[in-house]
From TrEMBL:
GO CC list: membrane
Entry protein name: Peptidase M50 domain-containing protein
Cofactor: Zn(2+)
Subcellular location: Membrane
Membrane topology: Multi-pass membrane protein
The UniProt record lists the keyword Membrane: yes
Species for this entry: Pontibacillus yanchengensis
């Protein structure tokens, strides 16, 4: 039993989490590219950078502790509108929700506990990212979406 828990931990930390986090941030980056961002930076993990890639407007950095989160930064002049930022923000949770659906299809074909772990992690990422919260000057995807909706509702009543 202890070995199985350790296997789950290793698979989660070194495969499922980094893959899911990277795809989440890549989805933000692709939509930002669609909205003509001139600079898109995707970072997977924290700590010293192990790999840096540049392709067009994309800069990708893979760091030592790949399981400790990810981020995307994007820029454009003129700045993105609130609507564009909301669409860019929804792309990350959307891709994780899609991965949940894909996981269910995979689980139907191959009943394996790692697939259940993949599904659970992507449900968690989708849910947490849709919760509106702000920590220091960092906003969750949910916060950006809620802020855009709030401004849309109350600016149209003027």
């Amino acid at each position: 039993m202890k070995e199985m828990c350790m296997d789950f931990f290793v698979i989660l930390v070194f495969i499922i989490a980094p893959l899911s986090l990277f795809l989440h941030e890549l989805a933000h980056g692709i939509v930002a590219y669609f909205f003509q961002s001139s600079y898109i930076y995707i970072q997977l993990g924290v700590g010293p950078s192990l790999l840096k890639q540049k392709h067009g407007v994309f800069r990708i950095s893979i760091c030592l502790y790949i399981f400790l989160g990810a981020l995307v930064a994007y820029e454009r002049d003129p700045e993105h509108t609130m609507y564009e930022r909301a669409v860019i923000s929804i792309a990350g949770p959307f891709i994780n929700a899609f991965l949940v659906l894909l996981g269910f299809v995979m689980y139907y074909v191959v009943d394996h506990p790692y697939i259940s772990l993949f599904i659970a992690f992507n449900i968690w990422i989708t849910t947490v990212n849709l919760i509106p919260f702000k920590f220091a000057n960092k906003k969750s995807d949910g916060y950006v979406i809620a802020e855009a909706l709030w401004n849309r509702v109350f600016s149209s009543n003027k």
